[in-house]
TrEMBL record:
This is CLPTM1 regulator of GABA type A receptor forward trafficking. Keywords: Membrane, Transmembrane, Transmembrane helix. It comes from the Eukaryota. Residues 1-12 have a biased composition (Polar residues). The gene is LOC110507412. It comes from Oncorhynchus mykiss (Rainbow trout). It is a multi-pass membrane protein. Belongs to the CLPTM1 family. The chain crosses the membrane at residues 286-306, 322-342, 409-428, 434-455.
Length: 583
């Protein structure tokens, strides 16, 4: 069933005539008796087998591939002990674990000629501690200069710099022996498995795969090693591991050598994976299944909303009924979010996502306004001046009047709230500097009161008594995603402010739905593409031409003057009937 992990043998140019390698076998047959030796040392290369203090665990007569023995009847054994910390380890030194499996009767020390056999010994080494970056961000109250940061942390930041590399410890580690007897071919083992399958240079066969498994060790459970610790608890487990589970673990822990992302991104990725692991460990299986399905649906709706948003603005000819000021404010809001996450060193993937969203918002500006380069009035006589003007369909319509009116009423509420939030932020919050203060204040204000910017469109809909000009497909997909966010907001732990944000978006969308219900669709009203759903009324050939008026190719009807495409054709029809009765 795992044939897709295996490749056919490939010619090796080092062999005569490019002869292919032959399939190999495991040097430890199934059910071989083994002895386990575990040594703990500060040396990466271990050789002092006579040091009894370095021997952490010795277990005799393990059975390779046995799944029925052990304390719990699952083939697993455990051993725990507290390690004494030496001063070098406390000062960011390293600690290594050296694991040896030998066939029963043999010893891992090469110096014991009568007891050592190369093909009967499997060796694996790994560093037990983990070095992690700890970043110190110096913040203070901009008015008083005081800070609530621990003085000890400030001293360490002054002596070690803003980024400090600290050794961390986790008390649990599992040693897995993979129960596998696949006929691997040297040079043809696919990555990342090739990093673990070791071949003997003489016989061509491979050693049993020893895998250090710390996948379920959460990042939040690591703690720093410092002078205050006198000992380090260590609990080792030995367990057999099936081939397919080992492949899953190896694939999850593998990192591409071609990856261009910085190491900071990897650390953030490890923390992000913690939430996935916690969900797998603690969430009800049925709820977990629903969450996975809903996540896939959320991604589909997000893509559809993006696609329909682009289509709507790309085909839009008239700005009738749309709040241009809200779109401009949206660009400002996206720009603030991007600058804020750059200032706070957020995940690289999030930065790219927000940047792409900002580019789309800038593109919308070119669709709702006339953006041109004025080459006659140049800046400094060299650079063309950028000219931005409202479209004629927006200036000459009642939409601009309603839009200006909505933002005037909005400013009465928005500016006082903004001033109060700015005073609160500068008095009670700490910031890195005035630049970070401005960004943090704007971001916090938009996060708290951003929903107010959605109200001008509601006001325009109320004044026009119409919602036909709105991109309803895009709004529907975004609303469905909002409802999905509601599910996640109450299933997954997250800040209360985010939950309130999801609720406020729901309320605004329900107001949109109410407006759609009370403002029935009029087939004679212009839709979002600048066209009407009504067919032009036919002209009676027996009627006098002066009474009939002119019917334009675009559907405009003129009887006693001109009637625009947004007017109703039914009025002309009634007038024609009255004139015919008078005749």
């Amino acid at each position: 069933p795992f044939s897709w992990f295996r490749r056919s043998s490939t010619p090796d140019p080092s062999t005569p005539a490019g002869a292919p390698h032959l399939p190999s076998r495991n040097l430890f047959p199934k059910e071989s008796l083994m002895d386990l030796y575990v040594y703990i040392s500060q040396d990466e290369v271990f050789s002092d087998f006579n040091d009894t203090q370095s021997l952490f665990w010795f277990h005799r007569d393990l059975v390779y591939g046995d799944w029925n023995t052990g304390d719990e009847g699952d083939g697993c054994y455990e051993h725990s002990l507290d390690l004494d910390i030496q001063e070098k380890v406390q000062m960011n030194g390293s600690l290594y674990i050296h694991v040896y499996f030998t066939k029963t009767g043999f010893h891992p020390d090469p110096k014991r000629k009568s007891q050592y056999r190369r093909l009967a010994t499997v060796h694996a080494t790994r560093m037990l501690n983990k070095f992690k970056r700890r970043k110190f961000v110096k913040t203070k109250n901009l008015l008083t200069g005081e800070t609530e940061t621990d003085p000890e942390m400030i001293k360490r930041a002054e002596s070690h710099g803003p980024v400090e590399i600290i050794s961390h410890w986790h008390p649990n580690l599992t040693i897995n022996m993979v129960d596998d007897h696949t006929a691997w071919v040297k040079g043809s083992v696919p990555p990342p498995l090739d990093q673990h399958v070791k071949f003997d240079a003489v016989s061509g066969d491979y050693y049993p795969i020893v895998y250090f498994n710390d996948y379920w060790n959460l990042q939040k459970d690591y703690y720093p090693i410092n002078e205050s610790l006198q000992s380090l608890p260590l609990r080792l487990s030995y367990c057999p591991l099936s081939l397919w589970r080992w492949q899953l673990y190896a694939a999850q822990n593998a990192r591409s050598p071609w990856n261009f992302l910085p190491e900071d991104t990897y650390e953030q990725s490890d923390e992000d994976q913690d939430s996935v692991k916690v969900a797998l460990l603690e969430t009800n299986p049925y709820l977990l299944g629903v969450t996975i399905v809903v996540s896939i649906v959320h991604s589909i709706f997000e893509f559809l909303a993006f696609k329909n948003d682009i289509q709507f603005w790309n085909s839009r000819q008239s700005m009738e009924g749309l709040s241009v000021r809200s779109i401009i404010f949206g660009v400002f809001q996206s720009l603030v979010v991007l600058l804020y996450i750059l200032d706070n060193e957020t995940n690289f993937v999030v930065q790219v996502s927000v940047f792409i969203g900002l580019l789309i918002d800038f593109w919308k500006i070119t669709k709702v306004m006339d953006v041109k380069l004025d080459r006659e009035n140049k800046l400094f006589g060299i650079l063309p001046r950028l000219s931005i003007k409202d479209k004629s369909t927006y200036v000459q319509s009642s939409t601009k009047v309603f839009d200006d009116m909505a933002f005037k009423y909005l400013s009465w509420l928005l500016y006082p709230l903004f001033g109060c939030y700015a005073v609160y932020s500068v008095l009670y919050q700490e910031h890195k500097g005035w630049y970070s203060f401005v960004l943090g204040m704007l971001y916090g204000f938009l996060l708290t009161f951003g929903f107010i910017t959605m109200t001008p469109q509601l006001f325009i809909n109320y004044k026009m008594k119409s919602v036909a000009h709105l991109p309803w497909r895009m709004l529907t997909y975004k609303a469905l995603n909002t409802f999905i966010d509601d599910l996640f907001a109450f299933v997954i732990k997250m800040p209360m402010m985010y939950r309130i944000g999801c609720l406020r978006d729901d309320v605004v969308f329900f107001v949109y739905l109410y407006q759609r219900w009370i403002y029935r669709v009029d087939p004679n009203r212009m839709n979002e593409f600048g066209t009407s759903g009504a067919e032009p009324t036919g002209v009676d050939p027996n009627k006098d031409s002066t009474a009939q008026g002119e019917v334009a190719a675009t559907g405009e009807v003129a009887a006693t003057g001109e009637v625009a495409a947004t007017g109703e054709v039914a009025a002309i029809t009634e007038k024609a009937k009255d004139e015919k009765k008078n005749d």
